[in-house]
Amino acid sequence: MRRYVLAFSLVGLTFFPLAPDAAADLLAEVSINGGAFLPICTALPGGTCGGSVGVGGLVVSMAAATSNSPGTPNMAFLLSSALSVMNTNASGTATAHLLIGDTSWAVPTGAVTMLSHIGGTVAIGGSSNTMAFFSSFDPGTGQNVSPGSFNTPAVSPSISAAGSYDATSSVAIPSVSVPPSFAMTENLTITLSAGSIMNYSASTTLSPSTTVSPVPEPVSLLLVGTSLIVLGVSLRGKRTVSTQSAA
Questions:
Q1: What is the rounded distance in angstroms from the CA atom of residue 159 to the CA atom of residue 87?
Q2: Is 54 helix (H, G, I), strand (E, B) or coil?
Q3: In CATH, which of 3.30.1740, 1.10.287, 2.60.40, 2.60.120 is domain 26-231?
Q4: Among candidates 75, 74, 72, 97, which has minimal Cα distance to 85?
Q5: CA distance 16 to 35
Q6: What pLDDT, on the 0 to 100 scale, is given for residue 123?
Q7: Side-chain half-sphere exposure of 107, counting CA atoms within 13 A
Q8: Comparing C-alpha atoms, which of 8, 58, 75 is closest to residue 216?
Q9: Distance of CA 163 to CAs 4, 157, 198, Å?
Q10: Half-sphere exposure of 233 toward its Cβ, with a 13 Å CA cutoff?
Q11: Is-contact 138 182, C-beta < 8 A?
Q12: pLDDT higher than threshold 80 for residue 21
């Protein structure tokens, strides 16, 4: 099986607001504890972006979101990876609902399979930690439409204990003739106990066969040291809402 490995490094913790771009169709956004969705990053279709958002002690640092929109007859993919998701609160759980999507893929010429995979590492576990992940396919160019017309079954890998995790699901999609394009979205809901830290790497692929699909490697345990440094900085003080994007 072909593997696409996302390798990232965190150079600093300086974030910048998103530059307005009406044509930006790759969007990563997060709702924290049921609040309004906040943009993490945006890029043009087929681009790459990354950034960070923190509210009330829950910090999501996205290493990258990317896709190959408009795709090829044999492969369309959407990838995302969070360097860390941390609940820096001294007490109480916190929940992040993430949507990562792109638009303007050319509709495949026949039936295809959409396959979702997620894997990662829990650096500091917690008894209340939970995750739910699925991917959505929606004809047209609706931004981050999820659930969509077709959805992979949701997976809920255990993230309560320190260590690695992974899960996969898929859905068959019949031939779609109209409209001429479609959108895909990754949908994650992560709840963390106080002090818990984890990361993830996810792929959503559309192809005629499940045998050709990018599967992300779990983000390395080497990143745990960086997460702990970030946690130390966060506990010193502030509630942050900040974002960064890179085309």
A1: 14
A2: strand
A3: 2.60.120
A4: 97
A5: 21
A6: 97
A7: 17
A8: 8
A9: 21, 12, 9
A10: 12
A11: yes
A12: no
pTM here?
Answer: 0.79
Task: Please give the average per-residue pLDDT across 97-123, as a whole number.
Answer: 94
pLDDT by residue (tens digit) across 115-124?
A: 999 999 999 9
Residue spans of the domains in the chain: they are: 26-231
Whole-number mean pLDDT of the chain? 81
How is the chain split among helix, strand and coil, in percent rounded to 5? Answer: 5, 50, 45
Contact 165, 189 (CB under 8 A): no
Sign of the alpha-carbon dihedral angle for 46, 47, 50, 55: negative
What pLDDT is recorded for position 109? Answer: 81
Phi-psi region of 57 (alpha: psi -120 to 50; beta: other; left: phi over 0): left
pLDDT tens digit sequence for 22-42: 457 999 999 999 999 999 999
**DSSP reduced 3-state for 41:** strand
